[in-house]
Amino acid sequence: MNKIIVKGGNALNGTIDISGMKNAALPIVFATIVTKSVCVIENIPLVDDVLKSIEIIREMGGVAEFIDETTVKIDTTGVECCTSPDDIVRKIRGSMYLLGAELAREGRTEMIYPGGCNFGKRPIDLHFKAFTALGADIREDEDEYIRGEVKGRLHGANIYFDIASVGATINAIIAAVTADGVTVIENAAREPHVVDVANFFNTCGANVTGAGTGTVKIHGVPELHGCTYAIIPDMIEAGTYMAAVAATGGCLTVGNIIPKHLEIISQKLIDMGVEIEEGDDYVTVRSNGKLRGINIKTLPYPGFPTDMQPQFAPLLSLAEGRGEIYESIFDNRFKYLEELKKLGTTVDIDGRTAVFSGGNKLVGAPARAVDLRGGAALVIAGLVAEGETEILDADCIYRGYFNLVPTLRELGADITEDRFATHIYGD
Length: 427
Ligand code: EPZ
Hints:
The protein is an alpha+beta fold and 427 residues long. The chain has helices spanning 22-35, 48-59, 86-89, 97-106, 125-133, 166-176, 192-203, 235-248, 263-271, 309-318, 336-341, 372-384, 395-398, 404-410, and strands at residues 3-7, 12-17, 38-42, 63-68, 71-75, 108-112, 136-140, 145-150, 158-160, 182-186, 208-209, 215-219, 228-230, 250-255, 275-278, 282-287, 295-297, 323-326, 347-350, 353-356, 366-368, 388-392, 414-418.
């Protein structure tokens, strides 16, 4: 089991550069399957989930080689649909994008139900709704496999999503780019990574407009070509480091970002008493570690991202005064709070609402990373807690953060990791 050991009390100071966005890289890696060509993807993040997606492409007959540390050349000419490896597919939520890619490439798909952080079942009914509208017959069989096929070609359709689902919006785009005719997606997710997928496809010769708004239109094209494309920076990785320095105190410049993607995160930190200076491609965060309690409600973009609510929990625990998190996206995303309580957080949880009394004095203790962002929350708490915090099951954290421990150490944290070379992938 991999673990991270952190001794609290050090401020964070310095400059870091943010990696490519995990949740943009995952769909784009699988989207290369539709091109049946060679794509060079730049600014690829070396986080475990993305490495697994590349492994899946290789196991399906694709060729993927790293040109440098953050550039991968992917040739999907030889990819065989319906041959994805169950053991890796069931470990990452990103595998869901294989469905749209295989249906677009060959009109058939078969894969084990995708995995992902455990906030409950993680339904994909909206994905099925989109594929059915586009002309696929798709179902989940008793053996946990998803199977789908298309008679003839996928055709354009009007798709309305009851929930602005990120995954379903992206999967619908992936399936529709080479369909016969025009597809319109209403109540589409507006996240920057949805825009990134659309931009990738347009660089490959597709015709996707409106990404980033609630209505996305896709004019199907007969085929795509390869391209070179750079992934956008990861706003959640950036937000996580910003939350860390807000908690510890110090001065941190977070570079290689798109400040607009971080607007709501910056605003919430300012509301808590943190100083933020914004440049063209960086923000500088200054904190004395003294924070005010605030209320947070997670919403689809451009609202406060659900993937940032765990990282704000230690801040609200430390802040003076009451604070509250309302989680409107997932119905069960507070499991990590049971672990934070082991370090001294006092919080009342009632369904989708968590109320923090604030003013907690955190003391280091052993705790477990129950999911990716919950693990990041524990690291932030450990950076401030008195004494030593041992974070078990750190694999969850490595799924979405590359070089987190060395980066924090360089910024002044007293943090080490006990990491085996071969990862035991936890769910
Ligand atoms: C993506 O998950 C991200 N994962 C998640 O990030 C992120 O939390 C989430 O979007 C919301 O921003 C990846 O991109 C790999 P959704 P996704 O479909 O697509 C419900 C992280 O930490 N829903 O937008 O699965 C669903 O249950 C991870 O990086 C349906 O009901 O999220 C949820 O309540 C964690 N039916 C809501 O919609 C569906 O078919 C939003 O989910 C699909 C979703």
